[in-house]
Recover the amino acids of this structure.
């Protein structure tokens, strides 16, 4: 039989678990593929995002965390962000978790230099958001948090996610 016909078949191209190389380069490739496999399964509502929110709070709870007089993140801001990501549809992309110097906590969905959406929590029962969806196409708003994530916010996050899918 031809060696090509004897080659193993993998369920996930490029993300296989078999290791056939040796050395530093092979180890680096295995590490990067493992990281990519894990990212594919992360969603905005995954436990990883909740852990990142909790870690962001822990790292920035004290005043002056930036050395320039920033307020510590409010405990209520962390709880709002946690509840928010738990209620997001699983199909949405993963946000980056960011501290804000005014004591808030932000979730950012980045698609490109002119495509970004940020949801900000201050522990006051609202989500304040802003987005850029192309040159000059800016939006901002505030929604009261009453259990479910406001549909307008989900729609804006989805717009960033659709762009990301087109690029991959």
């Amino acid at each position: 039989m031809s060696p090509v016909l004897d080659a193993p078949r993998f369920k996930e191209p490029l993300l296989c678990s078999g290791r056939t190389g040796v050395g530093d380069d092979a180890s680096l490739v295995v590490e990067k593929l493992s990281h990519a496999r894990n990212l594919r399964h992360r969603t905005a509502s995954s436990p990883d995002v909740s852990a990142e929110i909790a870690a962001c709070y822990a790292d920035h709870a004290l005043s002056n965390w930036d050395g320039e007089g920033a307020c510590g993140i409010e405990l209520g801001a962390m709880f709002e962000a946690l509840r928010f990501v738990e209620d997001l549809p699983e199909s949405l992309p993963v946000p980056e978790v960011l501290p804000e110097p005014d004591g808030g906590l932000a979730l950012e969905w980045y698609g490109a230099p002119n495509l970004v959406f940020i949801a900000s929590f201050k522990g006051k029962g609202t989500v304040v958001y802003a987005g850029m969806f192309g040159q000059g196409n800016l939006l901002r708003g505030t929604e009261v948090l009453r259990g479910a994530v406001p549909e307008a916010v989900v729609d804006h996050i989805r717009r960033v996610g659709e762009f990301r899918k087109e690029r991959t």
